Amino acid sequence: MPRLVIDTDPGVDDAFALALAARSPEVDLAAVTTVFGNVGLDRTTANALGLLALAGRPDVPVAAGAARPLVYPAPHEADYAHGQDGLSGGTARLPAHPHGLHRLGAVDLLAQTLRDSPTPVTLAPIGPLTNIALLMATHPDLRSKIDRLVIMGGALTGGNTTAAAEFNIWADPEAAYRVLVEEDVPTVLVPIDLTYRCAVDGAWLTTLRETGPLGEILESFTPSYRAHYTELLGHDCTILHDAVAVAEAISPGLLTTKRMPVTVQTTGPARGAVIADQRLNVPLSPGYREIDVAVDTDLDGLRNWFLTLLGRTES
Predict the structure, then answer these.
(1) Given the residues 82, 97, 102, 241, the one annotated as active site
(2) Catalytic residue at 241?
(3) Domain Inosine/uridine-preferring nucleoside hydrolase, which positions (predicted)?
(4) pTM for the full model?
């Protein structure tokens, strides 16, 4: 069974992503590591522990990672969308985790998991890429143990945090540049150009709530997030960015990808922007790397796939 590690900053959409992986019979969720991002590291870590306990997977080790970007402090978190606690004020509904944090930090747990795995591991970073950049820098010998990176981040036609930049990449552009451009690991990037198209509406959330206890609690985490996107986009919707990326990590090929050279801007007004060179038949420009970018999926099929997994009883 394929092995999966999620690096995350929960976050409402991260909560859905973790629940999908925890309930999937298709992958072995080997570890979860946390990073600053939607809220601070203490909160993202507590949320990850509680979410795994909620999903019936307290056996999955959790390690805390970077509390800040590699170089410059992040100007702000995303609590305006996720709420002060990251889950629309719903963290009181999370059960206590019976084991707590792993004794190792995130980078060391990532390295240990890769080193000890009998087969290559899929890494799914769905927050800022700081932990992954540090892993690559400190354990270059383990690159061959990574089957692929499935990264939620980036925007090809306009950002959600600045005019050019998506939040996860903007939060640590230097880390993103190192991972997306300087490394040589198979990579799938899932940008917001696609995740916005995978939006779910109020009727979908009602159906989720009726699937069972997990669905009911997940739906209860969405009010702040749903209100943010409803105001932003002008209609009732919730954008499950990270869940879309984890869907591809669980079931390769669920998303349609296109090979593109990409780079990350680390300076100027477009800092944090992912630029994809979509010209035809031109040489690879310096400072770019070819990766797979998710561009399409069966939208209704994906939404139904979410409901099937999230409504699945614990194994």
Answers:
(1) 241
(2) yes
(3) 4-301
(4) 0.97
